[in-house]
Design goal:
This protein is 21% helix and 30% strand. The chain is an alpha+beta fold. It binds adenosine monophosphate and magnesium ion.
């Protein structure tokens, strides 16, 4: 057996970031930038109003209750040549460019519109004194010319996409998201809707792994189920190596397996596959190699569904994130507290126990095991949201600290929704 760290470095060293390509902004979400983006323009592009109201001269509104003549109006998307004179106000909407001479904008809520007198354009009374610059947004107060708005190595979020468009950039150099083929092997695997024959089981792994690839933000490619037949496995893998950036297989990597997958991969890689026994539980067997003239990593995951998932989380997933240019290649690991004993037997391996992690009201995380810790018990895995890391030894006692790999940070039990907080605030202010 080799330590997990050694297995990871064998895999990660051979999965470098892919070469960057120019990508339209709307296709670049979640991709990693390969070059910094520097703005050639200021944002906002011009001085404008932060509110709906009246543009005024600063000197006119040093005291409250000043009456001013309304002489023009300017809406968002228009502009005016009218220069503000002494004692004048120009009606202005949020985002409209400031007329020359504007020193502040009085919010509509602070203004009283006075009845029109004779043929004049109307007048307003400003209810309070305004400081110079009040309710103004200056050109460049979000982004100045020459500013690096998105550094190299950024994982593009929706907000970053918005920033890129705001500076007039319609595409970026990013590391493309890998296309990941997912293949299941085994004579017993029966795809839906075929009825199960004697000894048949459902091919749950392929659908789960396609989901894991998609959830990581990469492009899943379904390579189907292949029976334990060397020629057919070889044909599918060779075809996949031409249209995928990486291949994930499950099944056929353990010691007692019919050596169809092994023989095929050994043949296709000229004997360069690494067949590993990793000192972890579950997911001890794992295979790795490069197909397609050494370009396309193939991750051979174990067949047991929980092992396949854990193997993906610890090895294939991080390698794919590295190929995608990510610096953070792992899901987050946090220190949590064991709610109950997490017992295990010493066996020279690190155990990854399936646990439910949740927030306490004090803002720390506790974990409790789900019932069903064997590697075929996918239902128990699906009930869990984290893996507790139990180093070789007797386990972790209730109340003790334990590291947990969070598989689903978005749905941790105990987290408040904003709705609950808002309701509480409403109750306080009512
Ligand atoms: P193997 O690694 O091929 O020896 O498979 C180990 C166990 O996982 C066996 O019980 C297989 O039937 C099961 N298994 C293999 N592939 C899959 C799959 N795609 N979906 C569900 N179970 C599988
Ligand atoms: Mg098999």
């Amino acid at each position: 057996m080799i330590p997990l760290a050694e297995a990871r470095s064998i895999v990660l060293d051979r999965c470098p970031p892919r070469p960057p390509v120019w990508t339209p902004v709307d296709a670049a979400l979640g991709c990693v930038t390969a070059r910094p983006v520097v703005s050639a323009v200021p944002v906002p592009p011009f001085d404008n109003s932060a509110v709906d109201g009246y543009a005024v001269r600063a000197a006119d509104v040093r005291t409250a209750h000043v009456v001013l003549d309304e002489v023009a109006a300017v809406m968002a998307g228009t502009s005016t040549d009218r220069v503000l004179g002494d004692g004048e106000a120009i009606r202005i909407m949020t985002g409209a460019p400031l007329p020359a001479g504007t020193g502040a904008v009085a919010m509509i809520e602070d203004v009283e519109v006075l009845p029109a007198v004779g043929g004049s354009g109307g007048a307003i009374r400003v209810g309070r004194a305004l400081a110079a610059g009040e309710n103004l947004r200056r050109a460049g107060d979000d982004i100045v010319v020459g500013q690096e708005v998105v550094p190299t190595g950024t994982v593009l979020s929706p907000a970053h996409i918005g920033v890129l468009v705001s500076v007039g950039v319609d595409g970026v150099e990013v590391v493309p998201r890998p296309r990941v083929g997912v293949l299941s092997t085994g004579d017993e695997l029966t795809p839906l809707p075929e009825p199960l024959g004697p000894g048949g089981i459902r091919d749950s792994n392929r659908h789960m792994l396609l989901g894991l690839v998609g959830q990581a933000g990469f492009d899943p490619i379904d390579l189907g189920v292949v029976p334990d037949d060397e020629e057919r496995v070889a044909a599918v893998l060779q075809d996949a190596a031409m249209r995928c950036d990486a291949i994930v297989t499950s099944g056929g990597v353990s010691v007692g397996d019919r050596d169809v997958v092994k023989a095929t991969l050994d043949g296709l890689t000229g004997g360069a596959m690494r067949w590993m026994q990793i000192a972890i539980r579950p997911a001890k067997p794992f295979a790795f190699g490069l197909l397609g003239e050494g370009r396309v990593p193939v991750f051979g995951l174990p067949g047991n569904p929980v092992s396949a998932l854990v193997s993906f989380e610890l090895l294939a997933g991080p390698a794919l994130r590295r190929m995608a240019g990510r610096h953070r290649i792992d899901r987050p690991v946090v220190r949590a507290r064991a709610a109950t004993n997490l017992i295990r037997r010493p066996d020279g391996k690190v155990h990854f126990a399936r646990v439910v992690a949740g927030w306490t009201p004090e803002g720390s995380i506790t974990v409790a095991p789900v019932p069903g810790q064997q590697s075929h018990q996918l239902h128990a895995m699906a009930e869990a949201n984290a893996l507790a890391v139990l180093p070789d030894g007797p386990g972790v006692a209730a109340g003790d600290a334990v590291h947990v790999l969070l598989l689903d940070v978005e749905h941790l039990p105990g987290a408040l929704g904003i709705g609950g907080v808002v309701d509480a605030l409403t109750g306080e202010t009512a």
